[in-house]
Specification:
By secondary structure, this protein is mainly alpha-helical. It has a single domain, classed as Transferase(Phosphotransferase), domain 1. It is built from ten helices and ten strands. Strand 1 (27-31) and strand 2 (37-40) form a beta hairpin.
Amino acid sequence: MDMEATREFLAELKVLTHVHHLNLVRLIGYCVEGSLFLVYEYLENGHIGQHLRGTGRDPLPWSTRVQIALDSARGLEYIHEHTVPVYIHRDIKSANILIDKNFHAKVADFGLTKLTEVGSSSLQTRLVGTFGYMPPEYAQYGVVSPKVDVYAFGVVLYELISAKEAIVMPNESVTESKGLVGLFEEVLNQPEPDEDLRRLVDPRLGNDYPLDSVRKMVQLAKACTHENPLIRPSMRSIVVALMTLSSSTEDWDVGSFYGNQGLINLISGR
């Protein structure tokens, strides 16, 4: 195993032996003799990218997408706000958000995690991570702060809405590729964005989603992916926003259920 892989292994081991949260993948065991390996809890449903873009899977309902966003936000809030020193994940993406049997989400892959001392808001470091999820200040200057994770989380929100990749290639041509952030910004900059916004929503959802809830998640994602890291919200604020959104989405689900006369008749035996 090369030195870089060994460093990532040890970094992940250090993080996972110090942090414990319902929405972080749990470390069960590890080996450092002979071969290096980590043993994690088993999460039956893979990562969210597989559900959004994989074949042979049912589409995730809108309420489940909101819950996945809230779960992963809580995991990130924990490492940003409740650990000493603060941890910055640096590689938040759909492939690193795993789903358990009850479709609750957990943040995984801490191999690129960076530590910052209490009171230090940012630092410079070598560039690691995944293109499409990197904010400008990190991609251009290597500046790392918790707002790097916030930006990447905003991209994940756009993925949950659209089921598109972080880098969109309409004609499978690299020269025509476009970031998902830019794709949504084009729509949001229009005077009346609703029609084009609907076209960006995952088509597998059909019309089975509350447009107002989608709008709110889009606005949250837009705030998370702001070019200026100082303007991006904290993960704590994001959790609060998603808790509110989750509550209103649950109300919508109940309302749509009771508004379906066919289901009402079926349950009542009519």
